[in-house]
Amino acid sequence: LAKTTQPISMDSYEGQEVNITCSHNNIATNDYITWYQQFPSQGPRFIIQGYKTKVTNEVASLFIPADRKSSTLSLPRVSLSDTAVYYCLVGDSGGLAGFQKLVFGTGTRLLVSP
Amino acid sequence: NAGVMQNPRHLVRRRGQEARLRCSPMKGHSHVYWYRQLPEEGLKFMVYLQKENIIDESGMPKERFSAEFPKEGPSILRIQQVVRGDSAAYFCASSLGTSWDEQYFGPGTRLTVT
Lengths: 114, 114
Hints:
The complex is a heterodimer of chains A (114) and B (114). Chain A has 114 residues and is mainly beta.
């Protein structure tokens, strides 16, 4: 079972910042938080991963509070092409425990309008 | 460097027929994963293979489904005697290591059982 809870859908407009929050109350000490993006008719694509505080890459930022029971994916200045489903996953990421299967929930469907 | 290749992209089978889905991992990747996605749902893990070995098949139905990743050639997901409930998108991912941020997904095969 997925260990995360996300909003089912979100709407935004081009140029706005979008923040998608994910709840993971039972996150374990060794768990990382990982986000994937999936466009229609395509396989998911890795966006960002973090353990605590803040992580930023060329695509997004990930904010993780001290208790790690939630996290927020931030997409700056979204465009129409950011319309997709965004999945939040938590788990050991295959590090200490070896292989860990990805467990996807239903994700958040983001719709960006002109 | 070509990405993960899957073929066919679309496959139509009548009930009772066999479906063979192929996955060629990225060059140099020796880890292959198969996932199934039903409409409006997240991906569900099926099986994890390394060359000539099945590492984890906990997500595979016990009957009619099998997977292999031979020393030479693509990974094959085989579904015997297909039923309508097998209609779904089947995604393959490959990785160099076992961490989540290293899984690269293919475009998927959409199986329709009539």
